[in-house]
Each structure stands twice: as C-alpha cells, then as structure tokens.
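re: ur msg from earlier - yeah i can do the nicotinamide-adenine-dinucleotide complex, just paste it... oh wait u already did. ok heres what im feeding in:
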Amino acid sequence: MKPISFNDLNGKVCVITGGAGVLGSSMVRGMASVGMKVAIADINKEIADKVAAEISKETGATVIGVETNVLDKESLKKAKIEINDKLGEIEILVNGAGGNSPQATTKVEEMTEDNMDKLEDTFYGLQIEGFDKVFALNFKGTLLPTMVFTKDMLKNKKGVVLNISSMNSYKPLTKIPAYSAAKASINNFTEWLSVHLAKVGIRVNAIAPGFFITNQNRFLVMDEKTGNYSPRGQKIVNNTPMGKFGEPEHLQGTTLFLLSDISDFITGIVIPVDGGYSAFGGV
Ligand code: NAD
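and the outut:
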C-alpha cells in the first residue's frame, strides 16, 4: 500500500474564485504548499496579483492573479482562456467568492414590543436590492463559474469542485436572512450537482466554515470603537465549544482533503470547520 499523502495534488491546476479574500487566500496558501498551480480568479485584479505574488514567493509554487467577475459568463470564459494559456487545463475549481450585504441585514435580531414601531430596523426595512446582490453573489456566483471552469474536467472525466457554504446554511442566523438562505442553496446545489456529475468523474463537495473574523462580518462581530467583541461576537464565541473564532489556516486541511484523491469516494457532502458550533445545542 502507498503511504497516504497529498502528493497527487502536486502540479494540479486549480482555479479559486474570490481567492484574494481572507479565507480564499489562506486556502491558496494551503494549495501552493503542496505544489498546486493556482489561478486566483477575483474581481479585484490588483489584490489577486498581490496575493499571488506573495504566495508564489513564500512557497515557490506557480500562483497567478486573473481578473474575473463570477456573475458574468463572458468574463469567466475570458478568464478560462487566460488560465488554460498560462497554467494548462483546469482540474480543480474552488468557488470561494461570496458574502453578505448590510442592505440585507436587519438592525435588530428580533422584533419585540419595544422596537416594533421602528420598522426600518427590522425585516420590514430590508432592501430587496440587498437580497438580489446576496443571492446573485453566493448562488449564481457559484453556478456560473462551475459551468465554465469544469469543461476541461468533463473532457478528462476527472475533476473536483469545492463550494464554500457557511454555518447559517444549517440554521439561519438572526439578522442575515438573505445570506442564510443563499448559503442553504449552496448545500442543496452541492448535493444536486454531485449526483448529476458523479458518473462523469467530477466530485462536488463543500466546506461550511464556522466563524472567522473577516471584512464581510467585522461590522457585526466587533465593536469598532473598543476593539472588543460586540455582544453578537461574544455570543458566537460562547456558542463555539472550542471557545474562539477560527483562523483562516483552519480551512487548509479540509480543503486539501476534499481536493485530493484521498477523498475519491466522497461526493455531495458539506464538512463543517467550526470549532464544534454546529454540534452544540446551546445548553
Ligand atoms: P472576503 O470578502 O475576504 O473575500 C471575497 C473575495 O471575493 C474578495 O477577494 C472579492 O474581491 C471577491 N469577489 C467579490 N465579488 C466578486 C465577483 N463578483 N467576482 C469575483 N470575485 C469577487 O470573504 P471571505 O471571508 O474570505 O469569504 C470567502 C467565502 O467564505 C465566501 O463565500 C463567504 O461567504 C464564506 N464564508 C465566510 C465566513 C467568514 O467567517 N468570513 C464564514 C463562512 C463562510
């Protein structure tokens, strides 16, 4: 029996959308550390190039930045041509672009008799444009890149897709109904697509990260003035059995596991990386 390792990933070509972000860039670091060739496909080309150059320098791996908008099929097709040209055929896709919007976030966690006359702070004050943005970025922004970037995998009858879900896909969090529903749709789509593509050699799985402090949620979990946790941030820590927020590096092991042939009989699952949050009933 061969020793178990991630060696099969060495030299494999991966595209990660949103790879210039906080969690995405840590996943890129993990992939580069095992010799994968990575294209960071991000709407922010400047940051994508910067992150790619940093990680290339640190690891010696080939990492490039490619400009793309996950909501625009033409831009994705253009990015694919550039990636094929610079790195070769795409063998792995990580759908990392995603996020929430303040326009689809209520100011209060629940309605009470005390706040029910301030409707703008509640469900009734949410902006439908915020819902559109959040559903587009998370759902359509996973669907379209998958249509475009898995074409080489289809031809070679081998490949892996990894989607990024969230804790709120299992149970919605207060305040963020659009983001919760959009991430629930990612779990559902992961299962659907895994079945659809199983016989043509493409595996489809997802990671559900727990709570990590990043740009998209900092305004919800930290008190900007004091630098301490907000009451909501403290509540998250209290409900995470390991008693802390995650560090982006915590996603690397699960990412490599799901991308590698080590998991080649695994498709259609969502793995929580959450310090125990999803296992805890709150009491
Ligand atoms: P981030 O905001 O740091 O990074 C997101 C990246 O996506 C950015 O580089 C941004 O430029 C890029 N992007 C945005 N719109 C794009 C578009 N239309 N086309 C291409 N690229 C685009 O976010 P993050 O915290 O690293 O989150 C990464 C993923 O993990 C997201 O799907 C997010 O929903 C999910 N997630 C985050 C947390 C958390 O605690 N931060 C928890 C669970 C899930």
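cool cool. Residues 214-245 form one domain. ping me if u need the other ligands too
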